[in-house]
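Example 3.2
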Amino acid sequence: MIPKTLLDSLLEQGYLTQPTYVDLLNRLRPQNTRRWLSVRLLAVGCAFVLAGFVCFIAANWQEMGLILRLSLPLIGLVLCGAGAYYKKLDTWPGQGFAFGAAVMIGAFLAVFGQIYQTGAFLYELFGLWALLLLPLCWLTRNKWMYLFALYVATVYWGSFQGGILTDGFCWAALGVYFTAWALVEFLPACKNWGEGLKRFIWMPLSVYATVWGGFSAEKAFNFPNAGYYLVALVLAGFFLCYARYKKDAALFAWNALALTGLICAYLDQWLGFRTFGLLIYCLLFVGSGIVSYRLWFSAREEIK
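Structure, written as tokens:
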């Protein structure tokens, strides 16, 4: 934990403005623990309620009539809109209702498309959903809403190209997420968005590259699979070095795990799952864990 004396010193020397100082103090050393916890519980609660609503419609689809199928997501959309208006968008409850409205839009489009077959193709549903999310992004001014719209737009692009497991989508997804991460990382206007948002952007990028690389590991040097595996290795290595430079333990640990997994996937064609192979894999993963821990420990000591 960063000591308050360090923040006070940075403020006195002019390295921090007063608003930034207060924001960092609330983030790193929250005085009102109850409020800090309630905000996060609110986000988790909203996610569970929305997931339960969508699952309820899907589980009872056959038993519901036409009117009920269409009215449930519309009622949810109206209630969420009314809640956001009543609670105001500059409050946490208002933002929660806004996210509820964003999910209800997608639920209604899915139900409407299933009934009338206008959204039988996934790219039609996610394309329209992404467009309808743009006004919500502008109204809420919420970075997570922008990220949600980016995810929906990415699924639209993948569905339009034929699916997320196609060659075209692979390179498009890598390009979109790498660009989004770079903008959030280096654009001055996004500097105060926090490390959490950056990780929500680079995590799917890294996961997607790792999975594609793992699938291609067996034929890593046979075209066309070479590109996926080598790109995954390069990305994991790049983010690993960058995390070491930034002393970002979370970013470092994930990419150390990804890089180790890619190496083990390639070694599997010779070592298999025999005792010797399992021993090698375990040693590699233990080694990556130790290196990650050492970085985390050194970064923690420097902060102190």
